[in-house]
Write a structure and sequence with these properties.
Blueprint (H helix, E strand, L loop, with lengths): L7 E8 L9 E8 L6 H12 L18 E4 L2 E4 L13 E4 L6 E3 L2 E2 L2 H6 L24 H7 L10 H5 L1 H5 L6 H11 L7 H8 L13 H5 L6 H21 L8
Parallel strand pairs: 1-5
Antiparallel strand pairs: 1-2, 3-4, 3-5, 6-7
InterPro entries: 2Fe-2S_ferredoxin-like_sf (IPR036010), 2Fe-2S_ferredoxin-type (IPR001041), 2Fe2S_fd_BS (IPR006058), 4Fe4S_Fe-S-bd (IPR017896), 4Fe4S_Fe_S_CS (IPR017900), Beta-grasp_dom_sf (IPR012675), Helical_ferredxn (IPR009051), SDH/FRD_Iron-Sulfur (IPR050573)
EC number: 1.3.5.1
Catalytic activity: a menaquinone + succinate = a menaquinol + fumarate
Length: about 250
């Protein structure tokens, strides 16, 4: 009878060398099929024992840093939280995240997201900062509940890879950036909603979203960026009506 250590599964891994390859190709590797091995463990085995030239990103191995996002059998996944046994008997096709330029093999360039993120001012904005000796800005559990879900984003880029709008409209701010903006808009300590409004309400912001919902479906942390976008659409529409009736009125949310 075969033991766990003798079982194997095939990884079909996308390989791409800039300046050498014109397009990615798939290369097959046999790796041990072990009960607790994630896709990332399989790739690490390839790197350590079969092919040291393979390139991929990883850091925490605990589903926290968001570094190891990849396309596994056509779906965006965190490779550290997706297990080989889930795809047995295989093969398992591992490719870089879609909708991003490929740097090498499974490594993608996320500069576009990093450029867009500061545009939504994803930090607490205060008109006047109270002195430290005055104490903390305390919140009730209800106030924390307002934004906590959106604060769970780990910038893994799975939502961008799954988003059909981003694949067609690269100027779209994207799900994660908008969800992070909402995280601060809904924070009782924040006073920057007006500052974020113009960029969020632009054609490249919430109104570009067609509410397919794939971003929320693939989110490994249950952030629900699609819900955040729809929620802000209601806010933006309400604000526009208020401005028609009371031009000087702008609520903080």
């Amino acid at each position: 009878m075969a033991t766990e250590t003798t079982l194997e599964i095939t990884l079909e891994v996308a390989r791409y060398r800039p300046g050498v390859d014109t397009e990615p190709t798939l290369q097959s590797y046999q790796v041990p099929l072990r009960e607790h091995w994630a896709i990332l463990d399989g790739l690490t085995y390839v790197k350590d024992h079969l092919d040291g030239t393979l390139s991929f990103r990883w850091s925490c191995r605990m589903g926290i840093c968001g570094s190891c996002g990849m396309t596994v059998n056509g779906e965006p996944q965190l490779s550290c939280a997706t297990f080989l046994t889930d795809y047995a008997p295989g093969p398992i096709r591992v490719e870089p995240l879609r909708n991003f330029p490929v740097v090498r093999d499974l490594v993608v360039d996320i500069d576009d997201f990093m450029t867009k993120l500061p545009k939504v001012t994803p930090w607490l904005v205060r008109e006047v900062q109270s002195p430290v000796e005055d104490g903390e800005y305390l919140q009730t559990p209800e106030e924390l509940d307002e934004y906590q879900q959106y604060s769970m984003c780990i910038n893994c880029m799975l939502c961008y890879s799954a988003c059909p709008v981003y694949s067609l409209e690269p100027d779209f701010l994207g799900p994660a950036a908008i969800a992070l903006a909402q995280r601060y808009n809904l924070d009782s300590r924040d006073e920057g909603a007006d500052e974020r409004r113009d960029v969020l309400s632009s054609p490249e912001g919430i109104w570009a979203c067609t509410f397919v919902g794939e971003c929320s479906a693939v989110c490994p942390k249950g952030v629900d960026p699609a819900g955040a976008i729809q929620r802000y659409k209601l806010t933006a529409a309400t604000e526009s009506i208020k401005e028609l009736l009371m031009p000087r009125s702008r609520s903080r949310r």
